[in-house]
Fold each of these.
Amino acid sequence: MAFDIHYDTKWEGDAVEIYVLVKQVPDPEAIVKVKSDTELDIENKYFTSFFDEIGIEAGLQLKAKFGGKVTVLTVDNRRVDALRRGISMGADEAIQIADPALGGSDPFTTARLIASYLKDKPLDLILAGRQAMDDDAGIVGPAVAELLGLPHVNAVVELNIEDPKKEAKVTREVEGGKEVLSCALPALFTCQKGLNIPRIPQVMNVMKAMKAQIKKIDLAALGLSAGEVGPSSAKVKIQKYLPPPKRPPVKVIKEDFPDNVKTLVKLLKEEAKVI
Amino acid sequence: MNPQSAFRNPKSKEERSMSNEIWVFAEQQDGKVRKVAFELLSACAEFSKKTGQEVAAILLGSGLQEAVKSLTPFADKIYCVEDPTLASYTSDTYLTNMAPVVRECQPSMLLGGATSTGKDLFPRLAMHLQSGYAPDCTGLTIGENGCLVAKRPLFGGKIFAEVAFSEANPQMATVRNNTFLVNSSLSKAAKIVSFAAKTDPSPKKKIIGLEKASGARLDITEADIVVAAGRGIKGPQHFKLMEDLAEVLSASVGTTRAVVDEGWRDVKDQIGKSGKNISAKLYMAFGISGAIHHVLGIGTCKTVVAVDTDPNALIFNYADYAIVGDLFQIVPALTEELKRVLAADK
């Protein structure tokens, strides 16, 4: 159990405060269908968004190095499984921001809720997934950083910290290569596949996490009113869901080799006109 | 108040206050503007026929003569912020320099490519400007009264959504490569409007290095043609076959999650749910079974070719052309045939 080992560390500064933003989303295998213009049918098969787990793992590795605390935080009225996943992996605390008024909020409102909670908390680092695997938007992370006035770096594939009260060295993917940056802390990083391989929690810890206490925060506790959230605050609105565009039926080239290859090239050139 | 009343109704004819410009973020690297910016400017030229607005590019960087020259036929105006501190992108410097220009000029739309930079900058800028933002779009249309409707995939492409924007300007969106075609017959003569750069004496972020990927291949999200192999290729050493094929087509080489998890290829080349979504004109899949994780990432490719030994492989359900066969036989023959045919064209 990697997270129970106290690493021999030279770090003698103040304990490190890390927050990880997490979300429970439909599993990639879950069937999602259009029910009506504004409603979806989602199979009840959920998991913790993969990139968020990478964030949790990154937080736990830093905690092992420097000591301190990892807190997982979600904005969700119903699902707290991502928080329990975080606890079972080794996070210390779990926060659920929930309120009946939150239905129909957009990612910018979600960011506002998170920032309202974090604004007066001591913290060194906020981690999030590159994007949640349901709306695939990637808005909340950078937007939280903007509201808190912190620098952010997206899609981080390497993260090295020597002094958590000073700066991080991070690598992010860019087209045609990787960019290495030094970034002052506190900061917010969104995590990309390749940063680490999230640990699989042990069964005992999963059981413990089921009973772990989750701190629930509502709008009043954040000092926000119902008028500032929900559909009336949204900057974007989904007006219609559509099924994915259908491809024409596949053309199977049945000739023997090597004629099939010749035919394929001919079709690509003359019919599809793509070469 | 009806909570939805603040939304633009693209079907209503009701007049709404509208700025007279639509903007494209002309992302550049080493002074060269990315192709997606020209695609978006071409789309805006079409939109402007409907809305009567002017099309403008906003360009930030250092040493921008060539970039300005390349943009001139595509825009009515180019807003330029030039400074050595803007030579490379960081969200901080770009935000500091872009936000005031956008605030002052009040464009009704601000579009950008769904690139690593676009996806880093736009959400933060939208929060800063209190604007609406639709990320990673695969289509944009203009409603009857001139407002934007963005189409974007959700759940990795299982569902698409039409997104409308609130009254806040600008309506912001990032758009995937190859969503629109570049219209090279445009012959505008852009007027240059320069803004003084704002510099931060103590920046919070500094770029300390750039590791260029080996080879001169484009990123799989940018390439017009992508060829990919899955576990059917049996080992990292055989990717040479794919590299040779890619060479002939000026394509980039992609792969699947299984191959990346085996450690055969870098994660930057992974197509699919936990990798990248590609929108290539031509995508060719070899030895790829077609797991949902993978095919979600190719949903917006124009033409898909699949080659696999298993006649029941799921990938065939997502392909336009299929060959049931062995990639070790097909790929070298295909490389040779393409060489022959493409050489004959020249």
Amino acid sequence: MRGRMARNAFALGSAGLLVLGIAACNQSKPEQEKSQSQLKIVEQVQIDGQGKEVKADQSAAPSDPAGDGKATCPPVSIAMAGALNGPDAALGINIKNGVQLAIDKHNAANPGCQVQLKPFDTEGDPQKATAIAPQIVDDQYTIGLVGPAFSGETKATGTVFDQAGLVATTASATNPTLSENGWKTFFRGLANDAVQGPAVANYLKNTLGYKKICVIDDSTDYGLGLASAVRETLGPIADSGCNISVKKGDKDFSAAVTQVKGVSPDAVFYGGYYSEAAPLTQQLKDGGFTGTFVSADGTKDPEYVKQGGEATKGAILSCPCGPATGTFADEYKKKFNTDAGTYSAEGYDLGTILVKGIDSGAITRPALLDFVKNYNGQGVARKYQWTPTGELTTNLIWIFKVQ
Amino acid sequence: MIHECVDQYACLAANINFNLEGLRIGFWQLTIDGLAWGAIYALVAVGYTLVFGVLRLINFAHSEIFMLGMFGAYFALDIIMGFTPSGNAYNKGIALTILYLAIAMLFAMLVSGSAAVGLEFVAYRPLRRRGARSLTFLITAIGMSFVLQEFVHFVLPKLLKGYGGSNAQQPIILVQPKTQFHIFSATVSNVTIVIIVAALIFAVLTDYAINRTKFGRGIRAVAQDPTTATLMGVSRERIIMTTFLIGGLLAGAAALLYTLKVPQGIIYSGGFLLGIKAFSAAVLGGIGNLRGALLGGLLLGIMENYGQAVFGTQWRDVVAFVLLVLVLLVRPTGILGESLGKAKA
């Protein structure tokens, strides 16, 4: 009996090896039919709250951190706070690199004024940020801050920066309530979440003229909040037969696909993140859905295209964040050996604004705060000018497309 | 990027549906899709049930054995067979595709099987030698589950470029889901057929192995009475190893089938929920009972699919666990009872 088992095992093993051998011979053949696709998330237009396209002001070139090269200043530093380690580090690093690029360009052009960047890792955690905020404030050389990156940590630390009179410009915290705290030092470098949902919905309804849209959310605070705003603005165009909630972490959407197919809409809006959006897009395509897949900043990540492949082609993604364009994109790529990511442009623009302030002679906290408050200028991502509460005077949303 | 729901309960209430019409319309489709899921649950559930039968141990790390199987299948397709991950489907023709899938499955089974045996060797055997209590085993199992997850999350990316980490693997899709034929109003895709057929074959083979072969009799003997079995000349340690091996092999097979259905699911945390579902399936059918695990898996897959049609997609997991509780209220030992350890004529 034992002998037979051993023989069987041997036979099975050698059969397996044979099969592996055949496969190995096959391996050298290059895959021609579908190589790595060249799909990318590319910026299209800016839209306002009504969903109307807004032409970018082409006349004004984005401010250059290099300035005139003649600036002089005592040693001062700019702090950056955000997640630099941990699961959310990608966004923090995007911002930090953006600021770094602005400061390095400035320092290279202005030997008489060397500004130092001091990064602080909050891991995106409000508690850690609360512990770190005093360190930033207590450093007398630090006169400006880019950060904190996320809404939670910004909420937790805003008062500290306000009391210290340290100008805190955020490149990515988009919770609408942040500007309602009466902080004098808070400046938001992009539109907030209350703008995005209605803007996208109006864009789909008015500009693209879709008549029937399925709105799907992922049941998270972010996804459901955004999807609710979209549903509300779309009104009857959001078909009630396919108001679907899925769960973050789900990868099989067959039930949702069946439901969408039954309605055959012009578009599907998904409020959620890329890790679910990718399989959803693919399963919708496989299931015969031919309309447009629309989603927002949670999905605007290169990983979405990597995971979803050809099925993501033509998908429309909105984001309050601006695209990396022109020389900024090239310089970023050259310096960090990777493409500029979400919020890199904001980090660069905000860094530029701060060093421009320093160049103009604003080398104390009150002076720099004053400079930012009265700033009005073009950046890579958009035009920057703030209301007294720290919101931008014009809040625009960028529309991206996978192509 | 954070939106707050102003009133959490209002938001929740707005999200529960009660849509019997949806169940009626989609009944056959839901059944077919549920069967495919159930088949995957069933194969994974066997691993839980056999180990429980023999060791009275709930091997929580089994979900990670499954997860390693997914990576094994991916590795085979990526490195051994040289497919470039792209998120797009390859179309290789039926025969070649089946060959590729078979190799990937073999490799997944190899990885899962050896991981399961390795786990037994590294984590459980030393504890048994020292006569540890059953709670210690349970904690060890949970601990190993985390160890394996975090290994793939943090260590694997350093060992193998492009593997593991926080993001899912970029998918390699061999089979594009295509409708093959209709049953009543339901469409049956090639992926569904492959999953159900493969799972059926494995189920029959396992059932045969446990109930008809000599080492299957050994497993049943140890489950029934370890001491007497040892006196009768059954090597308990060998049997335990074999049990882990069978569980691992089936988890590997299930892993490949799962990646067919969910190509984007290859991630360090990808086995967790599925493992819990499979464990529930094992309990549902009667833990320690092989046929119970198979039946429980299929039932759970189908019922949760019905449930999500009625209450909404996001309630799928809730439906599965509520079903489990309801069945256990009526039949505490599961549908078929715990029979692996019971004497049968």
